[in-house]
């Protein structure tokens, strides 16, 4: 065993001597080919440009949105002492990024509690306009040119709300007709905001009456009796001498069953115009419908300076029916003067003259009725019979 160990040790020692005597040679490593750093710089710059172009292409069409509808906003201080409306400050709101979505403002949304909207005068207006400039230079509409340096607004700054007297927000919208604005100072912010001119006009009583009559007629068409009464009552209050309105209102009350109110309306109208034949005839006809013939004659007793044929005919018929001989005689005499060619009036006059025992005048009136038109053949036979009787009476009186 010891022999074997000694042999191994000898072998190991010899091996160690051989390794120590052998020279150590350096390893040969092939040189790695490297590229110039300039290539990587160019490649990185190109890649960044490509990414930037892709980002811009993915953004909204800035040119189209601005050219089709450009909104330019400026705040103008209209405090006292600034007669020409020169701007104190211009407030702009830039867009943070080209890729940020543009929001189109409408002029109707630019109003605030302490601001008023004023339409832009023309494209050559002297008011200062601050446009959005942070977007990549869009294609500017020819209507909105760059502002000269001499008219440029001061640097944008924040203005405290309480220090501005009455700021006006001026908005101009593309593709919209701009109405000119007068140079006169504002008198009311509300009128400019609403775009309406409120003018107080005083109507005459006649115009108010016409309006009330229109409402009453509409109520009648809708079978609204209450509304019609209200409308005509209001119209009569404005024009109490309007006989047509008074007559319509009285007829409505009569149809409603309030006859007393209808009579009072006619009587009050007659007091206002004592020679009103329309109201007197209207009251008489209502009394006839109410079966009051004797009372129907009372409003017709009065004669105007120039009575009409209808008035006299109604007066004669009612007086004859009520046996008011003198009134009937007077009425028929007037009728023969107004319409002398009508045989009816001559016949009525002859009858009244005969009742008054004026046979000579009655005979002449009967003869006048025969030679005129207007009566039937039966009435003509009655006239001939009366003439025979009158002739007989004359002969008997002559014999006596």
If you had to describe this structure to a student in words, what would you say it looks like?
- It is rod-shaped, with a radius of gyration of 57 Å.
- The protein has a 3-stranded mixed β-sheet with strand order 1-3-2.
- The chain has 400 residues and is mainly alpha-helical.
- The protein has helices at 2-21, 37-58, 62-68, 189-194, 205-221, 225-238, 243-256, 259-272, 277-289, 293-297, 309-321, 325-338, 343-355, 359-370, 377-399, and strands spanning 71-77, 116-119, 167-173.
- Mean pLDDT is 72; it is low at 62-192.
- Among the domains are: 59-177, no CATH class; 303-400, Alpha Horseshoe (Serine Threonine Protein Phosphatase 5, Tetratricopeptide repeat), CATH 1.25.40.
- It contains 15 helices and 3 strands.
Secondary-structure blueprint:
Layout: H1 2-21, H2 37-58, H3 62-68, E1 71-77, E2 116-119, E3 167-173, H4 189-194, H5 205-221, H6 225-238, H7 243-256, H8 259-272, H9 277-289, H10 293-297, H11 309-321, H12 325-338, H13 343-355, H14 359-370, H15 377-399
Helix pairs in contact: 5-6, 6-7, 7-8, 7-9, 8-9, 11-12, 12-13, 13-14, 14-15
Region (Disordered): 78-97, 176-195
Biased composition (Polar residues): 181-194
InterPro entries: TPR-like_helical_dom_sf, TPR_rpt
């Amino acid at each position: 065993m010891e022999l074997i160990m000694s042999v191994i040790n000898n072998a190991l020692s010899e091996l160690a001597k051989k390794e120590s005597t052998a020279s150590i040679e350096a390893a040969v490593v092939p040189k790695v080919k490297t590229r110039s750093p300039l290539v990587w710089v160019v490649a990185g710059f190109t890649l960044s440009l490509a990414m930037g172009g892709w980002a811009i292409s993915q953004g909204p069409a800035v040119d189209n949105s601005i050219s089709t509808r450009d909104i330019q906003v400026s705040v103008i201080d209209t405090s006292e002492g600034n007669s020409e409306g020169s701007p104190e400050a211009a407030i702009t709101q830039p867009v943070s990024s080209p890729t940020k979505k543009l929001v189109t403002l409408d002029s109707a949304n630019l109003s605030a509690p302490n601001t008023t909207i004023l339409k832009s005068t023309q494209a050559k207006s002297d008011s200062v306009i601050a446009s959005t400039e942070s977007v990549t230079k869009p294609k500017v509409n020819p209507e909105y040119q760059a502002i000269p340096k001499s008219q440029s607004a001061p640097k944008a700054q924040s203005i405290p709300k309480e220090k501005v007297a009455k700021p006006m927000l001026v908005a101009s919208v593309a593709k919209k007709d701009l109405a000119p604005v007068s140079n006169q100072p504002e008198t009311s912010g509300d009128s400019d905001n609403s775009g309406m001119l409120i003018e107080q006009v005083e109507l005459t009583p006649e115009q108010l009456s016409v309006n009330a009559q229109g409402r009453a007629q509409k109520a009648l068409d809708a079978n609204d009796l209450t509304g019609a009464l209200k409308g005509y009552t209001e119209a009569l209050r404005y024009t109490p001498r309007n006989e047509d309105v008074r007559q319509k209102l009285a007829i409505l009350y009569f149809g409603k069953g309030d006859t007393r109110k209808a009579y009072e309306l006619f009587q009050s109208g007659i007091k206002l115009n004592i020679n009103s034949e329309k109201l007197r005839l209207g009251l008489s006809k209502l009394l006839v419908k109410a079966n009051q013939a004797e009372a129907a004659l009372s409003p017709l007793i009065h004669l105007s300076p120039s009575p009409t044929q209808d008035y006299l005919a109604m007066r004669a018929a009612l007086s004859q029916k009520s046996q008011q001989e003198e009134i009937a005689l007077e009425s028929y005499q007037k009728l023969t003067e107004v319409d002398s060619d009508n045989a009816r009036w001559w016949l009525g006059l002859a009858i009244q003259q005969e009742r008054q025992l004026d046979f000579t005048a009655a005979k002449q009136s009967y003869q006048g009725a025969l030679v005129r038109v207007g009566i039937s053949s039966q009435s003509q036979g009655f006239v001939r019979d009366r003439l025979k009787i009158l002739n007989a009476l004359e002969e008997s009186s002559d014999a006596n």
